[in-house]
Predict the 3D structure of the following.
Amino acid sequence: MRLHVEALFTHDDDGCLVGSNEPSGAPAPRFFLGRSADGITLRFRHDVHPHLRRELEAAVADHALDALALDSPTDPSRYRDILARHAPVEKMESGPAFSFPRELRVLGEAIRVTDTNAAVLRPLLEPWLPDVPLGQPMFAVVVDGHAVSVCCSVRETAEAFEAGVETVPVHRRRGYAPRAVSAWAREVRAMGRRCFGPRSLVSAVVSCRIHLQEPGMTRRRVARLAIALLALIAVASVTPTITADSAPARSGMVAAPPRHAAVRVLLYHDMEGLAGQDDWRTYLFSHPEKYPEGQKMLAADLNAVIDGLFAGGATQVDVVDAHGSGNPDPDVRRDLLDTRAKQVIRDKPFDPYVDITAPDTYDAVAAVGMHAKTGSRGFASHTITLGMDVLIDGKPITESEIVAYSWGRVNVPVIFVSGDDRLRGDLSVMPWIQFVVTKTATSASTVVLRPVDSVHAEMREKAARAVRSIASAKVMKVSTPVRAGLHAVPPASLESLKGIPGITYADQTVTFTAPDFRAAYDGVIALVGAARASYSQVLSETVRKLPNGSTVMAEYSDALFMRWMDYESGRWRPPAPTAASRKAFHGDR
């Protein structure tokens, strides 16, 4: 039963349920109850209140389930009533889980389906074509040259696989599904894994659940496989399960594509979340007395992670600058960087978060030196730039999540992140990533440092583990259309947009709807430009404090008037844009 529930749902480090381990990425149930010959298995979602957990545990104990025969039905009404007191319950289901016997009979011929012969799924089972690369092993029963029944892996963990099955309606009741499932199960056993058949879940869904985007490569047939299951009951052991789920989600998470022989990793770096760093001037090019120290810290963190990525099986690691210190050259010095890694350089300017996202370029993404989001009270916590809080579906997100959503567009997962303890809390929505805490933030400008050698050792270990665990990583996707927005805090402000027709403004926040993530990101960046206009207030305050501040401000006022009068008189025109003199661009500056 443990293997079964771990195949059904993703878990956090405490063993709590997080999400459905299937392409839709639906929220995990609040409550899971399973009975088997080994006893009772209980699991709770990570956000279930301790009082509710204790109440459900007491109800299970009072129910005396151990005394019931496994084939006896379990009355879920007591659990439904308890859950309903905390959130409305709209639906409840229950059903068996199927595991396979030790001896698997050969029930008839079935062929292995791979990329080379996937056309056999056409035309009767063509909707399964996107699952061929993801659902291995996949087997089909072929009649007259066309697949009429198919079985493949719809969920997997390091220890077990779960099957998904479909038979074309006109070919049912002929024993084709058991043949396909038997072939699949024998292959899974040969791989050293356990195998399970699909099951019915008990679901109690609260009314606030929202629709999750169904990505292109989904195994959406998981929900309608019960018919083919009936043929398996005679050869499978049955254990009852109960689940009850609820709660909204703002994004979908899908299983990462399978690992290729080559593992290509793109490594982002920022510069505020470095090990050994406790001075904010080390990440600013405008402070030449401290910035070189930051460059050395950055290279040391990157090299530790690069070493771990290669040790874990990466065959390619590319590094891209996502910081923007003001340095016209990359923040990481080439002479300090591990020679096995290449830097991403383009012949024209690009936004590293969205402009380099492309299919079949990388298999995974990692990020070093990242920071918490605005309002998290982390070291230099912000999003995009000072005073900005980026919103997706009404929730603030970090730049690490921006990276994850951007690469989710092409089904590439984020597998590793490093930064301070506040960022770790922000990224609880990504429980599969390997995260390394570099320091503990005590304010936006002060920290308690960890020993750098210990941090780097952990980076190597977890980066290697991240590569080895790519198969269990999740791809983050945003439901479309996207509800996006920007909330401004000092020194930024969006108040100048208040009252403009067509603008949805409230309390320093502007929201809008975009057709997809890229359009949402571009809209947010445009709002950032508007919010930054208020930075000039700090400039004015700074100038006025100077001994000749009043004179400078008066000259500035006169200059504004002269610019206006010269333009109106035809004496001044904006200069024509000049072509970029640089021939190489490395990302953020």
Observations:
- The two ends are 52 Å apart (CA to CA).
- The longest strand covers residues 146-156.
- Residues 218 and 462 are 29 Å apart (CA to CA).
